[in-house]
Amino acid sequence: MESQNLADFPRPVHHRIPNFKGSYLACQNIRDLEVFARMQEVKVDPDKPLEGVRLLALQSKKTLLVPTPRLRTGLFNKITPPPGATKDILRKCATSQGVRNYSTPVGLDSRVLVDLVVVGSVAVSEKGWRIGKGEGYADLEYAMMVSMGAVSQGTPVVTIVHDCQVIDIPEALLEDHDLTVDYILTPTRVIATGCERPKPTGILWCKISCEVMGKIPILRSLRYRERQAGKDVSLQDEPRHLLGTGSQQPPPLSTVRRPQDPHQPESCSGQGEDGPSNTVYIGNLPRDARVSELKKALRELGAVPQRLTWQGPKRRAFLHYKAPTSAQQAVSCLQGLRLGAATLKVALARQQKAGDETGGRADEPYPDCHSAVSDL
């Protein structure tokens, strides 16, 4: 694509889903698909060559979901143009900048039902076999959607490529976790693959490394849920002594219990005047919840804070992290967390003056976050 000058900005196209000249023309072909016309909720990857599909989805007033880059802060963002958005504003909403500026995160408990999936590709065959950048994010996103109940085997998958990217791919290269496609759109063709190879049926935890788990908070949340459901969630390179109950247990974590300020509001979501908060509010705790249950969940999700303030009688707790970025990651990681039958409320807490959250002196510290996680 580079040597024949078929590539388009950003260049060079190596190590990315390549943009190409004619990508907008290829995107327009999706209007010829009946599945696009009758679908309402569309998930489109954030790759540059798919920008035209994102714009068409917005212009058609469909619900547009875009995965967060590298899944760092969650799985989906819902693109929400401002009321009365002009064509120029919609064009901005379809760009990577628009994804950042006009989107709201979608949590695990949002009951999303995706009608159509659009992914980028490096290469694809007319049989529907696909190759991406090699990092596995599109495959993992789809598997996570299956685990969330957002897609099924019948959910159509479309990819958009240049004609030169349609090649023969040996079936031997495919593995069980690889995503296949049902339609291929190029600047000159619309290909219905008729692919009958099953799509991923969920997350194959044995293919996930500890390193990947550490980078994707929402993946830790899904793993926790599936472990609670009794599924095998053993990781690719997880030390064997961590897989069972075993005798090695993490060191006990201290808890701070403080008398409550009767005037403190129940909801603590938001951002204070002094900037982003490094504290996470946990609400809707079951009346019989124990702090040990919350600590166990935090360890399993890799979201152990530096300090924890337990306010069990008021059915809430506060998690104090070293930095606002760590707190934001924890919020993403803990979305949909359950204790017993209750789904907990999780949000960034408002900035408080020293002692405001507890009505007393500064909290005693949690053990160092990194060592606590490594001991699990």
UniProtKB/TrEMBL annotation:
GO molecular function per UniProt: RNA binding
Pfam families reported in the protein's UniProt record: 5-FTHF_cyc-lig, RRM_1
Domain RRM as annotated: residue spans: 278-351
UniProt keywords, alphabetically: RNA-binding
PROSITE patterns named in the record: RRM (PS50102)
GO cellular component, one term: cytoplasm
Superkingdom of source: Eukaryota
Region (Disordered): 230-280, 351-376
Gene3D superfamilies xref list: 3.30.70.330, NagB/RpiA/CoA transferase-like
Bias (Polar residues): 266-280
Extent of Basic and acidic residues compositional bias: 353-364
PANTHER family from the UniProt entry: 5-FORMYLTETRAHYDROFOLATE CYCLO-LIGASE-RELATED (PTHR13017), METHENYLTETRAHYDROFOLATE SYNTHASE DOMAIN-CONTAINING PROTEIN (PTHR13017:SF0)
Protein name: Methenyltetrahydrofolate synthase domain-containing protein
Taxonomic source organism: Zalophus californianus (California sealion)
Gene expressing this chain: MTHFSD
